[in-house]
Amino acid sequence: MTKNHQPKPTWERKGDEDWAATVHVRLVLDHDAPSDLADEVLAEAHQLVHEEGLPALDLLGDPVTYAQTVADERIPEEHRARIDAHGLTPGERVSGSFLSLGFSGLLFCGLQWLSGGLWVGIGWPSLTVTSAIVLGTTLAAGALGAHAAGRIRGSWYFAAAAAGSVCAGVGAAPLVPAGQLFAVPAPALMLAFVALITAAVKFPDTTIDRWFTLTPSGPDDEAWFTRLDGLLRGRHAMPSAQARDHVREARHHLASPPGAEPATDVFGDVEVYALRLSEGPRRSQRFARREFYASGFLALCLTVMLIGNLTEPDPSPFWIAGNVAALGAILWSLRSEWHRSTTRNRPTTPSPGNPPSPDSPS
């Protein structure tokens, strides 16, 4: 989710435009390529097609195969090591959370406008709950960023603080004075969420990445191994026992030969080493299982919200319809994620000179 794009070329043929769109989608979605690289590749292809005067399909071949070739030749291992299974860095995880908050708030205000009129009444209970939700979402974004950066303990601290803030706000709402303090036009609240969305888009993800990422350097082997364990469990969704086994093997390997070389010199960059350990036929299965757990938790929250809406004295049909639609979508995704988490990919036969991944079965 990069935020700097160069202008897209204008293709003369509709077939070339479709070819370029396929290449761009395959690069970004299948190979987690930086969007800047995809734009650069398409600009080069556009120039070549323009100079030769031939259709892109005839000149450069099948778009899926072309995207695979570009990925093999031009996406560095260091880039893939910095992102998770969704192609996101820790900073992009955080900004994506604020984007979700902004769009959710925009939708909430729009539904409130349709169901309750132009003016939205604000009182101490609503202020308390809203503040708790905003604080909880901010802390949850920190938890996602820390987890993607491999800081497992920090992510648990953030998650516990997020849950505590929301529970405290909901629990304190009945204790504060009731009644309306003032009223605000719904469009004004919507503009506030538009400002949040704009800030999330404009703020540099690389800055947030630096807040969460601290790559160990120098002779501190313990910090290197701790970081390796966190990356395997967080960014690459590896079970704790399997991650500990990999760390134990790396420790044993480092201690086996005589000498006092640091782990950085023996194994290289810790993010790249963690990526190599995580690759294998079980990688997609692990991420699907993580998505299944997250969707299950969200389905539980939506079910509780739906029960709350149905038990209100005067339930709003807008909220009930939206709640039911969201719950249905989550339940459908649960079915797909369960299938992917229980279906093991067939391991590919390694080519000569390329040993099997440490994650592949022996």
Automatic annotation (TrEMBL):
<feature type="transmembrane region" description="Helical">
    <location>
        <begin position="292"/>
        <end position="310"/>
    </location>
</feature>
<keyword id="KW-1133">Transmembrane helix</keyword>
<feature type="transmembrane region" description="Helical">
    <location>
        <begin position="156"/>
        <end position="176"/>
    </location>
</feature>
<feature type="transmembrane region" description="Helical">
    <location>
        <begin position="316"/>
        <end position="334"/>
    </location>
</feature>
<feature type="transmembrane region" description="Helical">
    <location>
        <begin position="122"/>
        <end position="144"/>
    </location>
</feature>
<feature type="transmembrane region" description="Helical">
    <location>
        <begin position="182"/>
        <end position="201"/>
    </location>
</feature>
<feature type="region of interest" description="Disordered">
    <location>
        <begin position="341"/>
        <end position="362"/>
    </location>
</feature>
<keyword id="KW-0812">Transmembrane</keyword>
<feature type="compositionally biased region" description="Pro residues">
    <location>
        <begin position="349"/>
        <end position="362"/>
    </location>
</feature>
<feature type="transmembrane region" description="Helical">
    <location>
        <begin position="98"/>
        <end position="116"/>
    </location>
</feature>
<protein>
    <recommendedName>
        <fullName>Integral membrane protein</fullName>
    </recommendedName>
</protein>
<keyword id="KW-0472">Membrane</keyword>
